[in-house]
C-alpha cells in the first residue's frame, strides 16, 4: 500500500479518478480468500466510509420519528447517528452469560416487535465488547428480525481483527437473501482510517438501486486517486494481522 501511495504521489497529477469497479473486485476477492464468502461485485455501493454508509441507510430505511435499535454498550457514534437523523434510539443491553457477553434474545424479541422499530444496527465483531458473533447467534437474530420485518445494518468493519481461535461470520453468510446490508471499509483491517473509503453491500435489488441513487446524488460514489488505489492495493496485496 505504501508503494502504491508513493507511485500515485510521484505521478504528479491528481485528476479525477473513478474506479469503483476495481474497489468492489478487490473487496470481493478479499472476502473470498479470507472468509470464504462469495460477494457479487454487482451488489456494492461506493461510499466514503462506514459511518457515512450507516447514516445514509438509516435515512433511507426509516422515517423521522421511527426507531432504530442498537445493542449496548455501543460504539459511541451510533447514538449520535440515530438521534441526529431525528430517529429514536431503542437499546437492547447485552447480557453476561458465563463471564462473556451475549445477545439477549428475549429482550430483542420484545423490542424488535414494536411497530416503530424498523432497523437494527448490528456490530459484528462488537465494538466495544469484542464478541465475534457465531453463526448460530446470527441465525437466531435474523429469525427474530425477519419475523418482525426489521432490517439489519451489519457493521463489519472489525471483521479481520479477531483473536485466534475465533471465526468471523458475516451476516451475509447467514441470511443473504434478506434486506440486510453489510457495510465495511479497509480502515481498520489495514490501519487506513484517514484514507477513508467504504462500501455498502446488499442483495436486495430495490435497496441497492436506492442506495446507489442516494450515494450518487450526494456525490459520495467515488473516491479520489489515493483512497481508491490504496484500497485496491490493500485488499489485493495486504495482510491483516
Ligand atoms: C464499529 C465501528 N464502526 C465504524 C467506525 C468508523 O468507520 P469509518 O471510519 O469507515 O466511518 C468505527 C471506528 O472506530 C467503529 O469502531
Description of the molecule:
The chain has one domain (43-237): Aspartate Aminotransferase, domain 2 (3-Layer(aba) Sandwich), CATH 3.40.640.10. Helices cover 40% and strands 18% of the residues. It has helices at 2-11, 20-35, 50-61, 77-83, 105-112, 135-147, 171-174, 205-217, 225-237, and strands spanning 44-47, 67-72, 88-93, 95-97, 100-102, 117-123, 151-155, 181-184, 198-202. Helix 2 runs parallel beside helix 9, helix 3 runs parallel beside helix 4 (77-83) and helix 5 runs parallel beside helix 6 (135-147). The mean pLDDT is 92. The structure holds pyridoxal-5'-phosphate.
Quick overview of this protein structure:
With 241 residues, this protein is an alpha/beta fold.
Helix content: 25-40%
Mean pLDDT: 92
| Percent of residues in beta strands | 15-25%
CATH superfamily: Type I PLP-dependent aspartate aminotransferase-like (Major domain)
Give the total of beta strands: 9
Characterize the biggest β-sheet.
7 strands, mixed
Order of helices and strands: HHEHEHEEEHEHEHEEHH
How far is it from the N-terminal to the C-terminal residue, by CA? 15 Å
- Could you please say which CATH topology applies here? Aspartate Aminotransferase, domain 2
How many distinct folded domains? 1
Amino acid at each position: 500500500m505504501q508503494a502504491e501511495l508513493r507511485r500515485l504521489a510521484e505521478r504528479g497529477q491528481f485528476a479525477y479518478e473513478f474506479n469503483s469497479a476495481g474497489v468492489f473486485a478487490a473487496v470481493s476477492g478479499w472476502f473470498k480468500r479470507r472468509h470464504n464468502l462469495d460477494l457479487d461485485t454487482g451488489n456494492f455501493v461506493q461510499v466514503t466510509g462506514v459511518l457515512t454508509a450507516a447514516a445514509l441507510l438509516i435515512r433511507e430505511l426509516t422515517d423521522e420519528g421511527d426507531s432504530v435499535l442498537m445493542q449496548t454498550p455501543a460504539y459511541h457514534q451510533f447514538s449520535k447517528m440515530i438521534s441526529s437523523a431525528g430517529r429514536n434510539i431503542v437499546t437492547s443491553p447485552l447480557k453476561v452469560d458465563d463471564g462473556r457477553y451475549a445477545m439477549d434474545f428475549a429482550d430483542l424479541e420484545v423490542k424488535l416487535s414494536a411497530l416503530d422499530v424498523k432497523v437494527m444496527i448490528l456490530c459484528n465483531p462488537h465494538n466495544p465488547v469484542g464478541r465475534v458473533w457465531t453463526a448460530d447467534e446470527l441465525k437466531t437474530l435474523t429469525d427474530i428480525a425477519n419475523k418482525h420485518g426489521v432490517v439489519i445494518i451489519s457493521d463489519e468493519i472489525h471483521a479481520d481483527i479477531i483473536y485466534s481461535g475465533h471465526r468471523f461470520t458475516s451476516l451475509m453468510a447467514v441470511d443473504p437473501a434478506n434486506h440486510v446490508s453489510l457495510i465495511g471499509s479497509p480502515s481498520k483491517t489495514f490501519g487506513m482510517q484517514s484514507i477513508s473509503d467504504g462500501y455498502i453491500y446488499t442483495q436486495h435489488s430495490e435497496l441497492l438501486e436506492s442506495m446507489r441513487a442516494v450515494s450518487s446524488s450526494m456525490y459520495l460514489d467515488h473516491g479520489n486517486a489515493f483512497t481508491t488505489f490504496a484500497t485496491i492495493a490493500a485488499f489485493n496485496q495486504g495482510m491483516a494481522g
